[in-house]
Amino acid sequence: MTDLTNLTVAQIRDGHRAGDFSAVEVAEAFNANVAGAKLLNAFIVETPEHALAAAKAADADRAAGTLKPLSGVPIGMKDLFATNGVQTTAASHMLEGFVPRYESTVSAKLWDAGCGMLGKLNLDQFAMGSSNETSYFGNVISPWKRNDGGNAALAPGGSSGGSSTAIAARLCPAATGTDTGGSIRQPAAFTGISGIKPTYGRCSRWGIVAFASSLDQAGPMARDVRDCAIMLENMAGFDPKDATSLDMAVPNWEAALSSDLKGKTVGIPKEYRLEGIDPDIDAMWDAGIAMLKDAGADVVEISLPHTKYALPAYYIIAPAEASSNLARYDGVRYGLRDLPDGAGLQDMYAATRADGFGPEVKRRIMIGTYVLSAGFYDAYYTQAQKVRTLIARDFEQAFGVCDVILAPTAPSAAFGLGEKMADPLAMYLNDVFAVPASLAGLPAMSVPAALNREGLPLGLQIIGKAFDEQGVLNAGLAIEERAGFNARAEKWW
Amino acid sequence: MSIDQATVRKIASLARIAISDAEAAAMEGELNGILGWVEQLGEVDVTGVEPMTAVIPNTLRLRDDVVDADPLTGGGRRDDVLANAPAAMHGFFGVPKVIE
Q1: Which of A242, A303, A417, A491 to pair with B83, CA 20 to 30 A apart?
Q2: Could you tell me if A88 and A136 are in contact, meaning their C-beta atoms sit under 8 angstroms apart?
Q3: pLDDT computed for residue B100 by the predictor
Q4: Cis peptide before A163, with omega less than 30 degrees from 0?
Q5: Would you call A159 a catalytic residue per the annotation?
Q6: Any idea what the Cα angle at residue A415 is, between residues A413 and A417, rounded to 5°?
Q7: Using the beta-carbon criterion (under 8 Å), do B85 and A332 form an inter-chain contact?
Q8: Is A204 one of the catalytic residues?
Q9: Which residue of B has its CA nearest to A319?
Q10: Do B55 and A439 touch (CB under 8 A)?
Q11: Do B73 and A241 touch (CB under 8 A)?
């Protein structure tokens, strides 16, 4: 019998529908893989009983003829989504033991669609990081190893590093991610899987632990483009509880998938050709251009002149919003309280926040507090918001001459754990290609394209016009079909 | 412009994060590194450019002016709201004494 954990979301859905296997068999197979992969540390909480209960319901629904869109599909849930009755931590000590009494909109939609939950996935603390090394609950280890015979533990990317590792290691067929400045796309690229950040506002932010609200956007991570389309259809949709939710119908992205790009124009941004970049990255990019031409697309060079300012603008705007959002952790209403003997209210706040936040979270709150403080607000924050307008305008002008943009997802393959932790700036540079689309609120996805000379996956990024997830998915599919990426990490855990 | 340790302690106090002298010293270098790097934004000509307020054009909606318009976020859920409080007492959030 086939190993059920090798199946994609579409194959599980269709195979269950056709009666090839039961949902309980699928859930048990994935539960076993999760239980056997403690070394990867992908999960903060495992919920095999949730997956099994949903599977039993799916099998009963099949017998009754009342199947749902994702009946029988178990998934992983990034531990940034509030889940009713299941601990939700954002990988922080601050929220250790926090058990929500409500369900995030995105997770509720997935459960309504018939999904079961295998567990809550590890991440960078409050989604702040690019390597999953800032989690209070320990590093997630990538299932991938370099082919140099060494045994170096590699980063799974971040912040959705539990999601990327779990999918690449076949612990779940798909997972939720969130992307503020690359947190879906970069970990997908590092682990040889696909992931899409939709247009800002497509997925409700209600019930997602907030980091930078003008940037935060949920999206799916999965093994292929079709699965991303299926998942996104079941995550997106208008939600009156999120003030920035898009009041638009959710397209049927899966049904409209097409890798025929005749009549489409692909833009290649010249500013993304970085000097001194790994030649494997440029070679993959050139190969991707050839694949899209082969799919019928025209290719033009475009200019996004403010690209080099995107990352510094992001590192003002995101920390500013984080310092405001994270002010809610005060030791009063939920989460940790540290009350030293004889302390007053102000001392309690300061002690609680000193104890509850990790170093990277503190660093960002401090930067955010500084750039918003009296006397510096205009020089830093207002200037960054003006630059953000210019970055969005760059894209608007580029989309006058092209339909989608093709670029690398990240400037390198996965690096070793610990390699970049000493220098925050070196870590931030990982998101140099991902952040511009985030600042402009545009849909963008990463698809695996090649292995580098170390045998590690590299991802190509497709950026689309606002609301044009279909164009992004279709170009992603064209690459997927031509790249034929089917490498996977050899099991060592 | 660069910041000194006194400024680091002032920011920490504004952010309500207790820090030791050693942490303040370490953070001085880190924050200066980051702030020195973001200062390149100053070279961008932003004459006549409006700061971004909404990345995707959207209008703020008003909900119906009724009690408990949404059963999840409406009233009458005191026990749920208090369920995760570190020191809930008598149906309220407990805090250290603030008035002598």
Answers
A1: A242
A2: no
A3: 63
A4: no
A5: yes
A6: 155
A7: yes
A8: no
A9: B34
A10: yes
A11: yes
List of chain A residues whose C-beta atoms are within 8 Å of the C-beta of residue B3: 370
Q: What is the pLDDT of residue A412?
A: 94
Cβ atoms of A468 and A417 closer than 8 Å: no
Catalytic hit among A183, A194, A438, A446: A183
CA atoms within 13 A on the CB side of A341: 0
Residues 6+ apart with CB under 8 A from A463: A395, A404, A405, A407, A436, A437, A442, A443, A444, A472
Summarised one tens digit per residue, pLDDT across range A393-421 is 999 999 999 999 999 999 999 999 999 88
- A228 and A473 in contact (C-beta within 8 Å)? yes
Rounded-to-integer distance, Cα A196 and Cα A221, Å: 7
The structure tokens 């971040």 sit at: A158
CA distance A379 to A368: 13
Contact A243 B3 (CB under 8 A): no
Interface of B with A in 26-45 (CB under 8 A): 27, 30-31, 33-35, 37-38, 40-42, 44
Where residue A366 falls (left for φ over 0; alpha for ψ -120 to 50; beta otherwise) is alpha
Residue B1: the pLDDT is 62
Question: Which residues of B are less than 8 Å from A338 in CB distance?
Answer: none
For the segment A165-196, what is each residue's pLDDT rounded down to a tens digit? 999 999 999 999 999 999 999 999 999 999 99
Q: How confident is the model at residue B7 (pLDDT cuts 50, 70, 90)?
A: very high
Contact A350 B73 (CB under 8 A): no
Q: Which residue of A has its CA nearest to B20?
A: A354
Stretches in chain A below the pLDDT threshold 50: none
Cβ A350 vs Cβ B18: under 8 Å:
yes
Interface of A with B in 295-354 (CB under 8 A): 306, 308-309, 312-313, 315-316, 323, 327, 330-337, 339, 343-351, 353-354
Is residue A481 within 8 angstroms of chain B, CB to CB?
A: no
Q: What is the pLDDT of residues A221-268, one digit of tens each?
A: 999 999 999 999 999 999 999 999 999 999 999 999 999 999 999 999
Q: Which pair of tokens denotes residue A293?
A: 């031409």
Write phi, then psi, for A354 (nearest 5 degrees): -65, -40
pLDDT of residue A1: 58
Q: At A107, is the secondary structure helix, strand, or coil?
A: helix
pLDDT digits (tens, 9 = 90+) for A114-150: 999 999 999 999 999 999 999 999 999 999 999 998 8
A245 is catalytic: no
